[in-house]
What we know:
The protein is mainly alpha-helical. The protein contains one helix and no strands. The protein has one helix at about 1-55. The longest helix is centred in the middle third of the chain and has 56 residues, at about 1-55. About 0% of the residues are buried.
Amino acid sequence: MDERFAKLEVRLQHIEDNAEKFNDRFANYQQATQWVIQLAFTLIASATVTVIVTSVLRR
């Protein structure tokens, strides 16, 4: 009986370790996604300002 509990304890620890690794990966993925979105908005804003400034200066 003790052997079964020991095996279950080892398996549970393994599952907990995997869950922690998954949480770390998910947090990294979420942060990277936020950076990509911020970069995209920055590029769109820069392009918009460039187009507006160019059209105003050509007049």
